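Hi support team,

I'm opening this ticket because the web form for multi-chain structure prediction keeps timing out on my end. I have pasted the exact lines I submitted so you can reproduce it. The total is 654 residues across two entries, so I didn't expect it to be a heavy job. Is there a limit I'm missing, or should I split the entries? Thanks in advance, R.K.
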Amino acid sequence: MQGLNFDYVTRFWVGLILAVVSALLSNFFMFKSTLALKSKLVRTDAITTYEKRFEGLKLFLPPHGVVGYMSGSNPEILDKFDVAYAQIQQEYRLAQYAVAPIILRPATDDVVQNLLFVIIDEYGGGFLDSQPPKKIAPPKNFILLRGFGNGLLLYRRELP
Amino acid sequence: MTFRFLLWGLITLFIGYALISLIWPKQRASLSEFWIRVCLAAGLGFGISSCVFFISLSLSPQLTTWLFLPEAIIVGALLLLQLNKNSSRTVPQPFPAAGKPFHTWNALLWIGFCAILSSSIVIFLLLSLASPHGGYDGWEIWNMRARFLFRGGSQWTEAFSTLLYYSHPDYPLLLPASIARSWIYTGNETQATPLAIAMFFTFATVALLAASLSLLRSTSQGLLAGLVLLGTPYFLRRGANQYADVPLGFYFLAALVLLNCRKRLPESNRGVLALAGTMVGFSAWTKNEGLLFLGAIILSFFILPVRFKGWKHGLRQMTRFLLGLMPILILLGYFKTALAPASDLISEQQGLWPAIERLLTFSRYWEISKAFLEQVFSFGLWHPYTSTPLVLAYYVLLAGKNVDDKEQSSIRSSVALIGLMTLGYFFTYVLTPRPLKWHLDTSLNRLFLQLWPSFLFIYFLIVRTPEMAMLAGSGKLKPSLGTNFEVGQAQKYG
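Hello R.K., no limit was hit. The queue was backed up. Here is the completed structure from your submission:
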């Protein structure tokens, strides 16, 4: 009986120590990997940098309403359910985050003629990856209102 | 700005703390009880103030400029109630004062807990400072919605446009309203407040878990549970990413703690059930999964136990629970019917037949079961050398369980609750109109995370405390003894 009791206590200790050590180790490994982020802290984070691009543009937008958005010749993909377009979609959504409470929508052919403004992002979803900008043709009947020198262009529908 | 930031935090905490003091009279001066009250108070404060903000916004967006007015009225009314509170309401100690046996493992657990807590705070701050806008859901859903509420003026309802379908405009507003409210206080869109809210919910979950188990079991049991939660990297990561799954997990845990504490409180203390109802309401006001939790809690705590205790008892208990729940549910109902679009999981169903077809496709069940099984062992992002779920399975087998008769029914209900929630999540995947693999890959780990603090609470309620295990090992503990009080007595007279 005594032997059984001793066994129980020893085994319990093993279990307790395992539980504590397992928690401490998991946390320690995370701590180690997170320390690597220290170097990132001296730089501005990617979202803040991305948002700064929109500061000038926001001054030319109406306070509310829907504005078109293009970052390539095929704006349909911005709403397409496909992981292949994840990066492009992420930058589209970041643009939305930056310009809220304006609502962005892909400037597809079927809706563009109902819009007054269209934003074109020449980085085509590659700004965060430092890809070079590329020329994107604006929708028909839209004229350039202003370029902001950072890949962002604001177009306005031609008035009749 | 610092003063306004502090004022925002203090008002939030005061509203919650004053209400908690009215509902749950102070029992005894214990550190555990103090922490439980502070955590519940802040959770309650965030919930109530977000509701006040939403009501002000709904009445007139201009009202939010004068937000401090309704809040000052609430603070004033609570102060008056506090002053008039009958001191005779203070009840005798319902939580047994345990003998305070201090063992080596207590000291070691304290050292371990303090070390992991300090490390977790550093991890949290580094992750938050590296991504102050939060992770994907943090900025795309919660912070963006807060911007719409704060910047939107009279057009604030555009936050719920279906054009923003990817940011789930049907999700409720506890977090966005709390963030927007803080910006009204500070006067600008500082990222310090979403960060502070995320930090509060992350560490309050740990504090609530550890303190409630300290109160209901023993300090060592509470510390052990806190250690395991802080040793879950995914919990810290998602907390710092400002995801709503952590606040949601907090409200789940808060409701469960209150429902398990009520057995220890005098029958006259009806407010605790109402408070549990309010916490469940706030979980539904945080994220849609809270509605599933509401259904599961009613079933497991009020309907299933009817066969043991009779329907009259069940009905009486449920009425008290609903009293705290209803105001939040009415507000949520207004939000869901008047403002929010339908949930994508419902609107994309394309009729009944495709849903029935999915329900009858048995390969889906297999795929989901496989994913559930995989996630159980991996969702916490534990290091491959340290599989916490395996260790916990081993630990319960070694230590054994110990639940006293008084607690049987609430623990049975708690286990049923976790089972029902898991079942609910399972069938959500069976019926999802989204590609199944993608849906499982992008959300299942977060669903497990929501339940993780509640699971740990129930697990450590059931498993023997180190004190009990040592007594059992020395033969001094009768199998029926369970609470820390009884352990204290056994040690005193053993």
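A quick check on our side: The first strand of chain A starts at residue 66 and ends at 70. Let us know if the file doesn't open in your viewer.
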